[in-house]
Amino acid sequence: MTQNGDQANGLWITSGEPPSAIASGPRVGIDYAQPADRDAPWRLWSEGNPGVSKAR
To answer: Which of 4, 18, 28, 56 is most enclosed, with most CB atoms within 10 A?
Structure first.
């Protein structure tokens, strides 16, 4: 956030309720990467969030 409260480009933090559980899994759409990087559990999401795409 900028000093006047406007959202800046990129990542910002807002107040709210923390997720009840955080899930992790392999990243998606990076088939070109080395297996260790491609399969690492670096994709994080709030468990049960309907906006997260399912693994294919």
So the answer is: 28
In whole angstroms, give the CA distance from residue 18 to residue 36.
Answer: 30
pLDDT, one tens digit per residue, over 7-44 is 556 777 889 888 899 999 888 888 899 999 888 998 89
- Domain assignments of the chain as residue spans, ordered by start: 22-49
pTM (predicted TM-score): 0.57
What are 34's two structure tokens?
Answer: 């080395």
Rounded Cα gap, residues 53 and 6, in angstroms: 29
Q: Helix, strand or coil for residue 45?
A: strand
